[in-house]
């Protein structure tokens, strides 16, 4: 028996492991293809400019027209407000953790950011419900949904900011200090610009994540079929919630609208993901491309 | 606190700050104190936010549980507004929906985790690096699909295929009570479990991929030097190296499955009471129960849902903590 000989059973095991791992990959890809395929094929039926720019006001579920404009507008506003609150807040928390934090406060913050990471989205919705609506007595509105989305985006944004700031070389900071630049100027003029592409990518992935959230929005935006551009009063539409509501109806016309809304939502989220990845790739050092 | 010590200089406006990374010290001016102060303020805000989340949930939940006429922990009924109780008093308990939450999540992990590990091994060990990263990105796309789309797809596409699969399982394993049915299939806890499996797969696969990629080169070379085939190398070097990290990834996936709301709410046909047959329509989870019951709930009903949400929160908290402990313990054992 030569030294290079491998027994048939060992060869067989090796081959089967390869086939099983490959099969796992194929199994994982099948639902992805099936989801994208059905959403595109079924969603394309109703997906047009009429659908994008008309609401469901005075439209019966059995009508074949009607659109998602009120829902798209609502989601963009809710997500926009959540991002406006989250981005500066998470930036400052990230800066605190990396540039200032040592000791108990930063340990506690790191721990609770981890806890928030695992917070089920419906619990974030319940929290805003109990504080904002049951506690403070406000009515359901787009802003209430924004607050819940803020809670969901915050840990993702803090974590990515933290990771990106940690990647900035200490030598850069020291060079800046050596020139007599105060710490806060060093952070805003040297550290942040260096880490910016990565931070932007992280923020956009965070926005993409909250854009598809349905559960907290369901508890907080109320019910409306009409366009409401004001997120601070009266119920507002929401795109993921629109998908959910239309799917709860057995009429084919409603289900078709649900698929078209799902297609709209996926396009929005995939666009955000794509732009985020492009920024990351474009700004990455040439060597790691 | 330790990085900012007050300097004993006469000028009270000047604070000495020390950079924790470089160890350099500098006099802090007004700008530094404002900026550092607001960074600290933002950090403190996170703590206040978490405390507020806990406090408000507990307050509302306690109020509801105080009105509850049955045992909140052991009762199978959910009627907090007293719509069909004899005297219109609230009766609700967490037992049935907590059971459904655990069953669907366990099915999700049992189906999703092995596939995720297979995917991670295939991408890191069998594919060239460049192709691997492209394939990894494709699997990551699964995580970008919003849960409401999973629900829509699960309800209108997957569920049709689940009847056939469920029937085969019943034919083979029907002698176990868990797999018996009344002859109808689909919209079941099993279907919900399959949807959850698909949803947590990219999470587990992404973490496992990162860990397997870091397997020390020397261990891989050592295994090959002993004449190991690729599979033997994986068993000797890659799997042991990744064990604790991947275990923790699976636990994190389980936590995610526990809290998944809208996809489960859309797929499951909700049936009140305890459901033990996982292949036939019926069952409920804590999160899905909140989403479905909320629209018709009055004050006590909403508070009862908050109470159930608090239980869900505690469950995910324990699970996520367990994931951390696994990693920490392995880190200690390794060093």
From TrEMBL, chain A:
SUPFAM superfamilies named in the record: MetI-like
Top-level taxonomic group: Bacteria
Location in the cell: Cell membrane
InterPro entries to which the protein is assigned, alphabetical: MetI-like (IPR000515), MetI-like_sf (IPR035906), Phosphate_PstA (IPR005672), Phosphate_transprt_permease (IPR051408)
Keywords: Cell membrane, Membrane, Phosphate transport, Transmembrane, Transmembrane helix, Transport
GO molecular function annotation: phosphate transmembrane transporter activity
Biological role: Part of the binding-protein-dependent transport system for phosphate; probably responsible for the translocation of the substrate across the membrane.
Protein family per UniProt: Belongs to the binding-protein-dependent transport system permease family. CysTW subfamily.
Name of the protein in question: Phosphate transport system permease protein PstA
Organism: Actinospica durhamensis
Automatic annotation (TrEMBL), chain B:
Cited CDD domains: TM_PBP2
GO MF annotations, alphabetized: phosphate transmembrane transporter activity
Ranges for domain ABC transmembrane type-1: 98-323
Localization of this protein: Cell membrane
Topology within the bilayer: Multi-pass membrane protein
Major subcellular site: membrane
Database matches in InterPro entries: MetI-like (IPR000515), MetI-like_sf (IPR035906), Phosphate_PstC (IPR011864), Phosphate_Transport_Permease (IPR051124)
Entry similarity comment: Belongs to the binding-protein-dependent transport system permease family. CysTW subfamily.
Protein name: Phosphate transport system permease protein
Organism: Actinospica durhamensis
UniProt-listed NCBIfam families: phosphate_pstC (TIGR02138)
Gene3D superfamilies: MetI-like
Pfam families for this protein: BPD_transp_1 (PF00528)
Residues passing through the membrane, by range: 42-62, 96-122, 134-153, 185-208, 304-323
One GO term describing the cellular component: plasma membrane
Any one of the GO BP annotations: phosphate ion transport
